[in-house]
Amino acid sequence: MHRFLISAAHKSSGKTTVGIGLAAALRVHGARGLAVQPFKKGPDYIDPLWLSTAAGRRCRNLDFFVSADEEIRDQFARDGCDADVCLVEGNMGLYDGLDLEGSNSNAALAKLLDLPVVLVIDARGMTRGIAPLLLGYQAFDRNVRIAGVVLNRLGGRRHESKLRAIVDHYTDIPVLGAIQDDPRLALVERHLGLMPANETRAAERRVAEIGAAVAEQMDLERLLAASHTDAALPRPAPQVIVSEPPVRIAVARDAAFGFYYADDLDALKAAGAELRFFDALRDARLPACDGLFIGGGFPESFLDELEANATLRTEILDAIEAGLPTYAECGGLMYLARSISWHGNRRRMVGAIAADVVMQPKPVGRGYVILAPTAAHPWAPGGGKAINAHEFHYSALQNLPADTVFAYDVRRGYGIDGGHDGIVYKNLLASYTHLRSTAGCDWPRRFVDFVRTASALQLPPENAAPRRSTPHGGTKTLAPAQLVSQENQQCSR
Fold first, then answer.
1. Which of 99, 114, 336, 342 has its CA 20 to 30 A from that of 86?
2. Are β-strands 60-62 and 85-89 bridged in parallel, bridged antiparallel, or unpaired?
3. Bridge partners for 120 per DSSP
4. pLDDT tens across 277-289, in order?
5. Segment 398-412 mean pLDDT
6. Active-site entry in 289, 330, 441, 491
């Protein structure tokens, strides 16, 4: 088995391109190819979409902020035990982190999982200075094993030859690859980083091109030798699957909404959900469902298409007004608002949330958040322990009514207004925060239980005027007090 972590001296060194290329190259390496399980450190949706396309296996996220060390070990073993190669792409630089000790850094993850590090160096403009850089990274923490270096964005064969000679003369770090600067290998970027693979039909072709270029300029055999281990990952006990009849949850998954963690979708299924995916850009009707989940994405990039699909927008509005249990995160929240405005263009959205979304030139909320659930939270009412999660949005809500009910008080982060997040309306919860399914935040089970209870009770909506019937096959509105859990458990770290 082979396991390694790809990191860099600093962010934007090209490690994502190298990771995508290696996943694609190793997948077809040898007579039958290798089973490559990709992982991404920290909160991220876009890199995992590309890594999943390259590896042909769903990328998994490993995050110190939301999971304890033992849970990260278990997750790594569970998802990687049947792979030939476990490839972990880091975030930021090797030693960068939230605190002075680097307790959540890439280096800390490498030590926790006993992974050798492949260090990607953006070598533009560098010659002899690469030696003290590499020596310093080696000396800073001797418990971090730097298995090799990838010289990236080289200025030609002469530049490569000089750097190889310098690294060989001054260090004992092997050069595992030397990749020439080539704009054809760059992935498209925009206001929130890389363009997601789910938005481009050319994703597989781009991945194949990057994989071929990386395979040609990397010493794959040397990489495999440097990352080989005889220690097998333990196979965790099988996941317990809820035996109750499934509830049907419609999930928006398309070019506009594609930000879903693989673990969260698996946890929804394990909790008893039958996931029914639909395309918010093209499908005129919701699939028959008992609940609705609209994750994050870039609805601002598809304003015309989303507005044009008026039939679906109306059906979703009617379903929410009739009490369909609904959960929306970030891009989903934006879609459920009255409108989205970007670059002077305003387009109508669903209108279930009495507010208007306006895109901003700089991030409004970015990074990790800590939330305290309020008594209004429809799945976990009554305060409780804090939730560790993350947010990343350039948009803000305007014209929000003063009497808006919130599910969370924000202790760290921004949320909707700097102090609150999670709009509660009937059986809808919509927040800028992205939750993760972890041992301390079992939100998929709580949401499925909420959907199941709502579906069973079929109570009429409170203070709601009669509306025409809707074809979603859903449920009636429940007051939060009617769904108070006897366990009184909370999502927590």
1. 99
2. unpaired
3. 8, 150
4. 999 999 999 999 9
5. 96
6. 330
